[in-house]
Amino acid sequence: MKGRREAARVLWRTVGEAVRARPRAVGRACAWSVVEVAPTAVFGRAVGEATDAFRTGRTREAAVWLAVLAASAFAGAFGSRRLYPALAAIVEPFRDDLVRRVAAGALHRSLRGRPDGGAVARLTHQVEIVRDTFGGLLVVARGFVFSVGAALLGLLTMMPEVAVLVVPPLVAGLLLFGAVFGAAAVRQRALVVGEEDIAERTTALAEGLRDVAACGGEDRLAAELGAAVEAQ
């Protein structure tokens, strides 16, 4: 339980630092997210009003509501088009900062006489995994927050009494997600550590391959490396 909380705390702190470091890009992403979800907020009310107007012979009013719906759809498409460059302005600098930290850490350890064989794995593979995970988390969390907010806003404009039935299950689902999120973070962290261990063992094996063959230690090292692979 403690490991789960620590992993979740580290993850949220990292995400928070990356977001706070670029307030302008975050502001643009939020603004365009609001524009993107405009159809979600408008759809139910516009369709309902247009249907009622057509049914009672108010054709002009129905056409106005359909025009509002179409305009919101165009606005949402435009907002979606402008949104992803704003998200990239957050994600790509985060990846660059991560590369600098990994390179600086590897150089620091090497200068202190402790060569870091896992640095190659971090730079070539794990940095991209973290970058993709961060970008995916940002996209999914942003989409969820703004879409749910727009849907609830639309619901409140049509049937506010139904919101009492919708919000409690939504909150319960969010709490359940938060409860299992720490476990997923621990698993992901163990996977990354396992990859570093394999990279370090492989580097050491490649450097001392002749000595291994000369001493007849192939089977032992193969078993050790195989155990590391199985653990990962």
UniProtKB/TrEMBL annotation:
This is ABC transporter ATP-binding protein. The keyword Magnesium does not apply. GO terms for cellular component: plasma membrane. The keyword Transmembrane applies. It is a multi-pass membrane protein. Residues 29-232 form the ABC transmembrane type-1 domain. It is found in: Cell membrane. One of its GO terms (molecular function) is ATP binding. Its main location: membrane. The chain crosses the membrane at residues 62-79, 134-156, 162-186. Keywords: ATP-binding, Membrane, Nucleotide-binding, Transmembrane, Transmembrane helix.
